[in-house]
Design a protein that fits this description.
The structure is a single chain. This protein is mostly helical. The protein has one domain. Helix content is 78%, strand content 0%. It has helices at residues 2-24, 28-43.
């Protein structure tokens, strides 16, 4: 039981650290632009040149 809780806490801490590191490297705009393109392709609008 303890190992499961410790593993969950470790995963959460690592995930938060990765998010902070991505923000520090200013990758937020890149990820956001890729997400927009993928969503637009999925709903059928297609590729937008921005």
């Amino acid at each position: 039981m303890f190992h499961r809780k410790a593993a969950s806490i470790a995963v959460i801490i690592i995930a938060i650290a990765m998010v902070v590191f991505g923000i520090y490297r200013t990758e937020v705009s890149d990820v956001f632009n890729k997400a927009i393109r993928i969503c637009l392709e999925c709903i059928g609008i297609g590729w937008l040149p921005w």
